[in-house]
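Format notes (please read before filing issues)

Several people have asked whether sequences and structure tokens are stored in separate files. They are not. Every record keeps both together, in the order shown below: the sequence lines, then the token lines. Line labels are part of the format and must not be stripped during preprocessing.
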Amino acid sequence: MSFKISKKILLSLIVVFLFSLFISRSLFTNLLPRTDDLELHGARVASYYLALKQGQLPVYWGPNLYYGFGYPVFLFSYQFPYILATLFYVMGFSIEISLNILLIIFITIGGLGIFYLSYLLNKNIYLAIISSFIYQTSPYILLNTFVRGALGEIAFLSLFPWVFVMLILRKHANKWWYLFFSVLIFTSLILSHPVSLLVAMPIIVFWLIFNGYYSELKNVFKNKNNLNFIFSCLLSIGISSFYWIPFIFEKKNIVIASHSIINNFSLRFISLSQIFFSKWGYGGADLTKLHDVFPATLGFSIIFIVMYSFFKIFNKYKLNKLNKTFDKNIFFWLIIFFVAVFLMLSISINIWNFSKILPYLQYPWRLFWVTVFSGVMILNSLKSINRYLLILLLLISFHHAIYYAKPLSYIHNSDHDWLEYFGTSTSDNELKPKWFDENKNIGIENKIVLNSENDNKKITSLLWTGSKISYQIYLEEPTQVIQKTMYFPGWEVYIDGNKTEIDYQTASYPGRILYSVPPGSHQIISKFTNNTYPRKIGIYFTLISTSTWMLLVIFAFFNKKLR
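Then the structure lines:
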């Protein structure tokens, strides 16, 4: 594969890039768009930075969150967007500008990804440009950016087209650039939005099987490209192990499985009328509120594409050319499209009740991203497309870019305010440990409380970061220390270098770190560690996989192909 780019393609890339900037025009500011979730993401970026500064690597614990008790937000929430945003913050940008830069990058990457994917499928530059515009300006994509501020989903949907690019290019899996970019893209996708990944994986697997990958697997050991492709996938899983292994095995410690945010999905199905049409608005995700417009809908572009595809199928059927000249992928993507639509409607509730995975979507209308992507793929599966339809789709895209690609208003906090954020950065405290009771703990605000009536006690040299606490203590009698920290596996307390037992299940302060200190002078260190088996195993696989990937890329670069 040559990296030479023709002038026509280069000009097209510039057009897509400029259109991406036009969509992002309201983000060129030092203010943060007012959305449902961007404030929470600003708080997480600040907390991620603090955790890194305090020595956490990888980052799992939000040290300043939940009124200073700390919060295991990064164990269970995607990390890729926060890694990038923190990088921009370290470079000197404010937290709000860092988030805006990130949104602009994701909008651009998504557009370029669809352009390249469409071009690979059809070698039609004009169709590739229009496909890119449709994807970027579909109501759900704009809703995610300018109404919801759903950073993880925005990141995921910017990367997802590139996954299909890598799938199509897998015959080049013996090249160094494929090993580098495929692993980078696959890993970033895994770390972007795990809930969307659960939906995407069956689509990817079924698409591969539908396009003959099963026959490739039967001869896997005879085809080095196939082996290298599988190896790239395994490396991505390995590199992201630091996240998904603790996520899976430590999720039992938090309340999310029994939380209303998971179990109330039945209240969040979309109506059939809204699937086909919704006014634009900036209402919240609670669809039960009257006169509160939440513009989750297919959009006219996707509707026209699906209708046109049925028109083409009917015409081919009448002419008995359906089997000879029709791209079978159109049927695959139509099935995916209608399955997604069906699952967004209340008639699918029995499937949701039976499924162990779907409820974690929380909102059935999140499947609109599937209809958007499948709609674009349906368009690119058509052998010939009426030029008037393409012009109409182009006009719709410009209309959406002009009128919908902007937030309702902006908010502004100083970096200091973000770093002092005291909430949990989650919608409804759904990542809280099962044993923590905020009602019984919130009343004591002192960082260290000595549960003793003896007045002859003293604490000196207190150092508190949220990830580590150290101090000197003098006591004349055995005393229980009450620390303003929410307990979660990984927290350890040392008295004079000796590990001591943590009591976090007392009736008076459930979920708070308590420990007993004997009389005398002592050095106390309490710190958050990665000393749990899931974290240790995950980090181990990440280190091994990352080292292997880097060495293979370097080796392949100098040898020009994988041996």
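For reference, the curators noted about this record: The two ends are 18 Å apart (CA to CA). Residues 302 and 375 are 5 Å apart (CA to CA).
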